[in-house]
Amino acid sequence: MAKGMKKGSAATSENWFDDGNATALPDNSVPELQAKANKNKRLSKAIWAAAVAGPVAAALAFGAIVVAADAKTAVEGIEVTPTAAPIPQLQVQEITSPGRFAATQALESWLATVPNPLPGGRLVSWDGATEQDHLDSDVAAGGNIAVTLEQFTVVDGAGTAYRVTYQVGSDPVGGGASVLAGPSLQARPQPVDGIESDGDAWPGIESADAPPAVAQAVQTWADAYISGSPERLHLAIGDTNTDRTYVPISGASHVETSVTAGAGIEVDKAAPTDGDEAASAEMIVRAEMRIGWEGRDSDPSPAAIQMDLLVLRADTGAPVVVAWGAPGAGPDLTPYENAVPVLDRAAPTTDDGETGYDDSGTAPEPAPTGSPDDAEQTESLESTEESNR
Q1: Contact criterion met (CB below 8 Å) for 141 and 170
Q2: 95: phi > 0 → left, psi -120 to 50 → alpha, else beta; which?
Q3: Distance CA 389, CA 380 (A)
Q4: 3 state DSSP class of 208
């Protein structure tokens, strides 16, 4: 014991449990303290994991951005060379009406009624629809129906034309249509014989005589057109583009042509063309074609077809037909507009696989003009019911 210290003072200073400033250590045997310690451990592990994964994710994202930028640069560097001339696109125009189907079904059922309401009657065409105001309807999904007048042309056995009209209601929301009223039957004016144009074949274009070379070019084109050979027709047209082809008529043996009208069109000499040759005078002509078919007599059909043709180099010794269309389409024709894409296209064949055509030339029998008696109607009805069984 050190000198100068009082007796009993050492015991008092060495008693740590009596130190009021001491802090007690946590006792993990207590459940609340043990849960808190485990939570702190998990939190520490999560912080360390985030600290490690963060830089790795940033590096991967940066690499992806670099790869995407390189790919975009490579795509933009690809050069696309356009074809010499665009391939025409197939255009389909749909003209119909919501009530057309319901009206057509009703008309066919009406014409098939026994005895016939129109002796020898048959449907010729659907002529369009006229919209009317909407009508209220409790059964329609939207509370109203759209009303249309569906118009048709029919003819009887004698060839007299009539206009038949049905009033049809269509549900614009829920779909479906039903006949509301009809049919009506109105006689139409019959075709007038002898109507001719005293002016030019094409409005606004002055007619001109076709040179003999143009008439010969028309015959050359017509021979290729009825040859059944796309290659021959392509060659006759003089189209230099090998990515497209043309569709000829098949099954014909020969053709005779005559030019009935023509009109010259002056073309700008400096304008570019769809080929290597310089632009020259164009001409549109109307040609009559009488076709002879395989298996028939040597003479062509006396009934002619008419077509408008576009002729290039009409003012030279080597004109060429480059487009064709219906009568009246001549001013709107453009070179090579009849082209179609080159695809594998099958020719019409018979059951034995040979290319063949109907050479009978039998016209359809005329429709009966008289009303059959009751016995014939009953016998026909009984035979139909027997066949359906």
Answers
A1: no
A2: beta
A3: 15
A4: coil
Amino acid letter at 372? P
Give the integer Cα–Cα distance in Å for 56 and 63.
11
Q: In this structure, are residues 153 and 125 in contact, taking their beta carbons and an 8 Å threshold?
A: yes
Contact in structure between 337 and 323 (CB atoms under 8 Å): yes
- In the chain, beta strands by DSSP E: 122-131, 135-136, 144-155, 161-170, 177-187, 244-245, 252-265, 282-293, 305-312, 320-325, 340-341
| Tokens 């014989």 belong to residue | 193
Record the tokens describing residue 359, joined without a space: 């050479």
d(CA 384, CA 367): 19
Give the number of residues written for the chain: 389
Structure-block tokens of residue 371: 């009303």
- DSSP 8-class letter at 98: T
Of the candidates 228, 296, 284, 217, the residue with the CA atom closest to the CA atom of residue 257 = 217
CA-derived radius of gyration, the chain: 45
Residue that wins the pLDDT comparison between 4 and 289: 289
Write out pLDDT tens, residues 28-49. 566 666 677 777 777 777 787 7
279 secondary structure, DSSP code: P
pTM of the model: 0.56
The fraction of the chain above a pLDDT of 70, given in percent, is 67
